Amino acid sequence: MTTPRMSARMRAPRVPRHPRHEEAREALAGLREDQAITSRPILVEGPRDVSALRSLGITGPVEVVNRGWDLARRVAHLVETYGTRGVDGGPAIHVLMDWDRTGGRLQTTFRRRLEAFDVKIDEDVRRVLMRCLKPETRTVEGLSGLIDVLGVEGR
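^ thats the sequence. predicted structure below, dont judge the formating
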């Protein structure tokens, strides 16, 4: 006979344990699928964020904010490289900063600067992750530690 405690241990390790984890998993799967179809880049804060996204199976282009460039040069590079719209007419870039205070400021800054150049951006994945994963993590790099909780097929 199995007790509730035993059945919890026997649960498949990649099964989301809460509906909000399922919603976050779906958002990440949608991001991975969007990148596979459109090659739309993701803008993140640093190299550890890139590593976390790679561990989640995201293989498309990822741009890093902290490259030693000033803000104006970074924005100009993004506009020149990716244009104002994606190949499907949608957003040109996903902006995925951390959902802490610094990440929020960076997100707002890049949103305003890119929109000033009429660049359409996508922030939906960040909104979902912020709402669903705030207790567990407040950073993109923290997502790599949640692979089992989210049930994401990582590398």
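The longest helix spans residues 19-38.
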